[in-house]
Amino acid sequence: MDLKAAGSRKIKVLLADDHQLFREGLKRILNMEEDLEVIGECSDGIQVLEFCNHTKPDIVLMDINMPVENGVVATERLRDLFPDVKVIILSIHDDESYVFETLRKGASGYLLKDMEAEALVNAIRAVAEGHAYIHPKVTGKLINQLRRMTYLNDMGVMSGAAASKESGVKFVGEKSPLTRREAEVLRLMAEGLSNKAIGEQLFISEKTVKNHVSSILQKMEVDDRTQAVINSIKYGWVTL
Fold first, then answer.
1. Is the distance from CB of 123 to CB of 103 less than 8 angstroms?
2. Where does the chain show beta strands of DSSP type E?
3. Concatenated DSSP letters for 199-216?
4. Which residues face 134 on adjacent strands?
5. 0.85 exceeded by the pTM?
6. pLDDT tens-digit readout, 154-172
7. Distance CA 187, CA 193 (A)
């Protein structure tokens, strides 16, 4: 994938962080790129909403811990009021609970503040093109959480109803491109099951499972199972 923005139009970025020095550093880094432009700075979630009401950025680079209104609340309100504005969380927190919550609220990416400048720039470009981008360190924690959920389910700690509530696919009517069977396969993928284990649970062949997985990846426009699971959390199809 070519991460450079197509054409000459710059990706407009709004910085939302309550630390001015941090914002200034980000601004210098991003404005050095030919295809990126910082068009504003905010120190709390209310300011973000007011800014977007007058000027629409392509990307809001959002901290979680801000006064007045935090980044999680602001992300949810942005999704409802300005659905075309994409949010990338840039945080010091690498706890998977923060990731789940912000993805559910509508964030398209979750990055850590200690990441390299080049990786940050590429993440912004990827999200601007419609992709989800999760910091590799956080992705690993997401997968570990899914494995813990599977272990608890296998040990009987989670009841069937609880497991369904925690990790079941939500059907969202016409918004979901998946068939009912594909949705069930996706749910089991989110629980960390292999193709063989999914086949055994659904009483279908491993080859059939592979076909369903390929169809899921194609419909969700992702390259692998991890991206499919992450996007399904973001879309609200899978709750964890």
1. no
2. 11-16, 36-42, 59-62, 86-91, 109-112, 133-134
3. HHHHT--HHHHHHHHHHH
4. 110
5. no
6. 544 443 334 444 444 444 4
7. 9
